[in-house]
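Q: I have 253 residues here and want to know how they pack in 3D. Can you give me a structure?
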Amino acid sequence: MTEQSKTLTRRNLFQTAALAAGATTLTSATAHAARKKKVKLAMNDTVLFQGDSITDAGRDKDNASANDFSALGRGYATMIASQLLGSHPKEKLQCLNRGISGHKVPDLAARWQADTIDLKPALLSILIGVNDIWHARNGNYDGTAADYETGFAALMKETREALPDTTFVICEPFVLRCGAIDDSWFPDFDERRAMAKGVAKEAGAIWVPFQKMFDDAVTESTPPCYWAGDGVHPTMAGHALMAKTWLDVTGLG
């Protein structure tokens, strides 16, 4: 090969690499732009967070107010609401939290009319599932994985019929391998995560991959307990990461 040929070959390689990099940048930009279009908020829209203790996060259940720190709790729901209210002041959003510690899918169903449908949210975010397996493991609940799937799917079908214009955000149930969580939780927990994703797809919901988020976040310097001390309930850092991911996935950050 001549020196000129080598130079041309190197030049072609550089050009190909540059084109590939540009394509990657365009693809990322396009994906980001598409993600930004997923959720649009309008004047006086209600944003509702539903779930168990992770969503509850110590909220004052006697306070049903919107946009109130004590009513929203100390977790990811408050962090998200704060960002939404700060970045969408003209829309005068109403952010509510109706998560209740210890709740499972059947518990949501029992209070769904008053705590969700009657509130007519424009955006409904749900995180549910860890208690459906945890309470079963403790002998305090006899529901199966199939019960979780069918119950969750029925709840979403009921909600879609009652609130056809509502945007659904279904968050992936998660656990981290520390505290109360050991290998005996698997593969049962992974099965329920897959079921939740299936329910989200069937309901046309935006899927927030919290388990993958935490799996990716665990490193030698930030072990599982950094994100959730007991393996289930997030630390302040864990809630912050959840809020960031939720906002990114919905395009509302």
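Q: Anything worth noting?
A: Confidence is low (pLDDT under 50) at residues 1-37. The radius of gyration is 21 Å.
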